[in-house]
## 1
Amino acid sequence: MSTSSSNRGISRRGFLKGAGVTAAGAAIGESAVVAFAEESAPKGPKIVGPKPLSVSLKVNGAEKSAAIEPRTTLAEALRVNLDMTGTKIVCDRGACSACTVWIDGTPVNSCMTLAIDAQGKDIRTIEGLAMGDTLHPVQEQFIEHDAMQCGFCTPGMIMSCAALLEHNKNPSLDDVKTATSGNLCRCGTYPKVFDATLAAAKMMKA
Amino acid sequence: MNNFEWADAKSIDEAQSLMTDASAYKAGGVDLLDLMKEHIAAPKRIVNIRNLQGFDQIKEDGGVLHLGPLLTLAQIADDKTIRSKWSAIADAAANAATPQIRNMATLGGNLLQRPRCWYFRNELFPCRKKGGEICYAQQGENQYHAIFNNQLCAIVHPSALACALVAHGAKLELSGAKNQKREVLLEEFLTLPSVDLHRENSIQSGELITDIRVPTPRADAKSIYIKQGEKESFDWPIAEIAMVLTMDGETCKSASIVLGAAAPVPHRATEAEQAITGKKVDEQSAGAAAKAALATATPLALNGYKLALFENLLTRTLLQAKGNA
């Protein structure tokens, strides 16, 4: 998978921030100068776009960057700019949850999240769930229980179920139903999804 | 979705300095992005207020519960303090939308979201709310529309939290330019189409909700929220009820009853409140109060079913409140 990671190491902004802290120890005046330099003229908050700009995203632990417009959703940035097509776009309105990813450990709709707004956050996608060749227990049990048919809802469904098990080691059937209540599956795989998730919970406790 | 400028505000002052008539504030962004994708909104600039610090707090202080406008619905649903005395608010949040959206959507944005009416949301229908001449719901597919105050524009207010907050007598703190603050009852802040055809509230240009203030109910009060959808998983309500009731034994001392998915604003069922107050709550009095609540309804061609639904739901909720007393 291609990763154009340009933002590794020291960025200009990060350098100035670091320099500011050092300067503040020595003299308040110097730190004020650095702070001004950081904000840069004209004064006030930074307005970006509508032209494309470089956006840095931390996806599955790796820093990646892409030149995107502010209107680009996280789902589009993942699929189009970062070539990570595991995350699916179906309704594109937050109604089906096929695009579910975790931001800072919490499942959200990547189709209703702007990529620019996900900077500085820890993004986890379906590609980052397995540990190398070892599948996540939820993935393993989805296969074991045949919990998919056409497979289009599956990445989002798995991200919802895996998030549940991160926060609840001993889920009831109702907990699984609630966790997947936003994930639409038109093939109707729900009973097998529930079985697979409960089996994964057992597997993770063992 | 149109393209736009983006600015990430670090303070209320900064957010307001970035605001123009062609701009939009964004908190969770769920409703705004939806409106933009449907070409109902096209701001030239988005002012991101999601990262403002200190506006996601929950604090009870001096008989008032303060809720920060940037709290997510999930945070409200999970909070023990809110659940202890304001369970209608916690349940309204817990039953709204999907888990994913509850993790993103904020309280402030939830109160200010635009209606879900499919004629309003579809750019091909230049409806009255969007400045056109016609309310298409009057003669159209109106099974999910209002049964009260529906003559001009038949939207139902989309916020379940607004129903629970109105039942609890919540107020909003609104902050305008130059740190000018005003406090307004949520019930008065949300307005009918007869007041403003094109908007659902009286927020002023540039204003932000900076605090949601909910009185602490009496220790013996019951706070209840019930939602009826067409299916158990993610769905909009076809009827919902928020209620704060105080009882003296089996007698109702006071009642605040709000019907949701019923009118263009959370609908205060004053007739039901009057009918049940001072009465022993039993099947007969609860049924009579529920009938009184629906007596002034003006259903459209396809939503008459809501009358029976609300009547049964309200009767059941009153009896449930009594059971818990």
## 2
Amino acid sequence: MCALIQILDYGSGNLFSIKDSLNRVSPQLKVKISTDYEEGRMDGLVLPGVGSFSSAQRLLVKNRPAILRDVSTKKMPILGICLGMQLMFEKSEEGKGIGLKLFKGNVVRFESKQNLKVPHMGWNRVLLKKDAMDNSNFCYDLPASDWAYFAHSFFPEATDGNFINATTRYGNQTFPSIIQNDNIVGTQFHPEKSGDFGFKIISNFARAVISQAEKDPAC
Amino acid sequence: MPLAKRIIPCLDVKNGEVVKGTHFVSLRSAGDPVELAKKYRKDGADELMFLDISASTEKRKTKVNLARSVAKELDIPFTIGGGISSVSDARNVLTNGADKVSVNTSAVANPSLVSDLADIFGAQCVVVAIDAKRNSNSGSGFSVCTYGGSFDTGLDAVQWAKAAEKRGAGEILLTSIDRDGTKLGYDSELTRRIASQVSIPVIASGGCGEIKHFYEILRGTNCADAALAASVFHYGELKISQVKRYLLKKGIEVRV
């Protein structure tokens, strides 16, 4: 048995680390990096966290219908990291175009004021909601509070609090750092760069992908 | 909530091995980059910096191989610098596993390189490294040197830092040439002068020799956001975990 997972390539930046991280979870996972989403063949999809909203969004346009079909009808697990999570919302102040609209709300920029450095870059705390550990397969075994690596200037103003599993505070701003609606998950930080804490999240996602593959073994 | 102050070991890599010198010269060997990377990650490094200082024509290949072999071992951010002078040089290391690139001489010579890199890869990928030296002819008292510290451009260090930020740099790696390898402590005056003039993170570098030097450069306002050190870690004089416990006790927020 193997599980197929695709990392959508927007054309710039480091995809090596997330691929390597997935490979470390299980040799069962076959990771493919490509600019074209292969509908119906994948057991999981990662929207990685490098690039700009406009350029990534342009690439998403042609893949959107296929991705949305697999995510809603097959309940395929999808993980958005940083920019990838922002692409799951409606639109962004960073650039033109619309997102995947998997979550309601828009992506806005941190205001640089009061000594607040933007981009928000470095290690900050991720505070898990009380019920997240019990209710979310994706947050399984995570500590109530831990450090994660962030590198971003924009964040989603989520409108539905039910989908927020964890938050992070920067300056006076609290923003969602882990969101989830069933098989759709997003992290504003980079789990592939967040040491042991991040690896737990990648492992939880990978396990969801493997159980997806067991439903309909392709290889 | 403030970000954790970062402790960043720096690996100066020459022809595939880690070296360390004083005032940028008299290099001696300190080991294998991948092995050191693994060791530092385990000991709690928040990030790693690799500066390729090889003079060979094999530079490009060295960097790509380094990016790949380090990326396989690391789950914390890492930056590669040294001899990156074009978008394609940067793409080469970023697509092979580096998270950020650091530019120095090439950015001074061609400042639009900073904007080009930021447009394509995002500001968070672009570190502008400034090697600064005390120079009384310079407005701020510090001027920018290039070519591994050997050439004083006469350019004012504060002005250049501000220009780099404006062009899209995501961080400044600020090295004091006067302090490099001396173990006398970071140049606090240089660091605070620049940190107070830019709103992007500043990584202090050059001169760290004792545990208290970390505290001195990371405390108070307009201080450094991260402290970079090489020899104190390479030669086992200090452990990263020990430095972080010490800082935590002193009331500095660190990731432990």
